[in-house]
């Protein structure tokens, strides 16, 4: 089980994709799915391709994620994050993962993550 928020959520997703024999459950909140290797050098890191490098990887490699259980959460007030997260959620489910999607009444902050983390880890481990 791996969990994370923001860049930690991105890292948790990469752990599941890179090490499917070790990571079969993840819970991620407000994941930085906008990230690409070039994003941090740009004027607007969130303005790149929707879903960033994770979406590209899911489309290009077409992995079998049937052994993965993922709880996704992102804050309703994270308007610029929502499209990135929504695409990765959809592609992950299409790749065979068991997916739960939630939207918290929060922004990109610990106040929203604390309840989502407990709820989503419990679901992922069920």
UniProtKB/TrEMBL annotation:
Q: What is the lineage of its organism?
A: Bacteria, Bacillati, Actinomycetota, Actinomycetes, Kitasatosporales
- This one is known as Esterase
Lineage, top-rank taxon, reads Bacteria
Gene3D superfamilies documented for this protein: alpha/beta hydrolase
**Region forming the signal peptide:** none
Q: Which InterPro entries match?
A: AB_hydrolase_fold, Esterase-like, Mycobacterial_A85_antigen
Q: Could you tell me the gene encoding this protein?
A: fes
């Amino acid at each position: 089980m791996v969990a994370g928020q923001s860049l930690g959520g991105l890292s948790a997703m990469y752990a599941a994709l890179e090490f499917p024999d070790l990571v079969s459950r993840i819970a991620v909140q407000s994941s930085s799915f906008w990230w690409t290797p070039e994003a941090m050098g740009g004027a607007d890191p969130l303005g790149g391709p929707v879903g960033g490098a994770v979406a590209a990887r899911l489309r290009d490699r077409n992995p079998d994620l049937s052994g993965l259980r993922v709880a996704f959460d992102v804050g309703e007030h994270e308007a610029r994050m929502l499209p990135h997260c929504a695409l990765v959620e959809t592609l992950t489910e299409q790749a065979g993962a068991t997916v739960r999607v939630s939207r918290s009444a929060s922004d990109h902050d610990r106040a929203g993550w604390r309840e989502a983390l407990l709820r989503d880890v419990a679901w992922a481990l069920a």
